[in-house]
Specification:
Elements: E1 2-4, E2 10-12, E3 18-20, H1 25-35, E4 41-42, H2 43-51, H3 59-76, E5 87-90, E6 93-96, H4 104-120, H5 124-135, H6 150-176, H7 184-193, H8 198-210, H9 214-232, H10 238-248
Antiparallel strand pairs: 1-2, 2-3, 4-6, 5-6
Helix pairs in contact: 1-3, 4-5, 4-6, 5-6, 7-8, 8-9, 8-10, 9-10
Length: about 260
């Protein structure tokens, strides 16, 4: 069994059947329990996720109803059984009983962390394989088919940070393996989606310079300087300004 949350939310059963989980508060509740699989999630947290600051007077009863519907759906789809429960009642709330390998989020976290450790040990090809495997689990924006309140929004932010962390590690691994040119399209995409991340801009500048594309590297610096000025009223860091001067002077650029 595998619960996939990194994209459209669905379950893959032991028999290989793909079961989409429809957009509903019951699915919203289940996803939150899965993401907090190591802890009992209090009823108050679940109510905050489902209704924010405007819970109905019957919030506790309605929450229990959603738990019932979630359990029934999982049983009907043969995801759970009498021998294998998933959503357990444990005061002061509920608990998801799931193995780490049954959740794509947990697998992705493990692979990316492992890739980082392998990179530190200079085992570059192994690091790259682990990072690729972890990042490939994203099939789109996390929880893309689930309504999200402010509690889940914080989880989504964490997952996006994890993905960016993994992508930066993969860039480092490829760089150290001398595979600089193929990284440029990915770096361009990343600076567009994370325009205030100066580290990514610096990597793009360095990659372009390494490939003999000095004019594009200088243009990348001008874009960064404009974005920072327009959005924050600041200049690039001294390190990036120094890199800019090295590119202007035709010196070797270190990133």
């Amino acid at each position: 069994m595998r619960f996939n949350l990194l994209g459209r939310v669905h379950v893959i059963t032991d028999a290989g059947c793909v079961i989409p989980l429809k957009s509903s508060k019951a699915t919203q509740l289940l996803v939150l329990l899965l993401l907090r699989r190591h802890e009992v999630v209090g009823a108050g947290v679940l109510i905050e996720e489902l209704w924010a600051d405007d819970p109905p007077r019957s919030a506790m009863t309605t929450l229990q109803t959603y738990v019932y519907h979630t359990r029934r759906l999982l049983e009907e789809q043969r995801v759970t059984s009498d021998e294998r429960e998933l959503v357990l009642t444990q005061p002061p709330g509920y608990f998801a009983l799931i193995d780490e390998d049954e959740l794509d989020v947990a697998v992705a976290e493990r692979l990316i962390r492992a890739g980082g450790r392998l990179l530190e040990e200079n085992r570059l090809e192994e690091a790259l394989a682990s990072l690729d495997a972890g990042l490939d689990l994203w099939r789109g924006p996390a929880l893309s088919t689930v309504p999200c309140g402010r509690v889940l929004e914080s989880n989504i932010a964490h997952l996006e940070e994890l993905r960016l962390f993994g992508m930066q590690l993969r860039i480092d691994a490829n760089w150290r393996l001398g595979r600089i040119g193929p990284m440029i399209p990915e770096l361009r995409s990343l600076v567009i989606s994370h325009p205030l991340n100066e580290t990514l801009h610096a990597k793009l500048m360095g990659a372009l310079c390494q490939m003999g594309r000095r004019a594009e590297a200088l243009e990348s610096y001008r874009n960064l300087r404009r974005i920072l000025s327009d959005e924050l009223g600041v200049d690039p860091t001294p390190e990036i300004q120094r890199m800019h001067m090295e590119i202007l002077n035709g010196e070797q650029v270190l990133v």
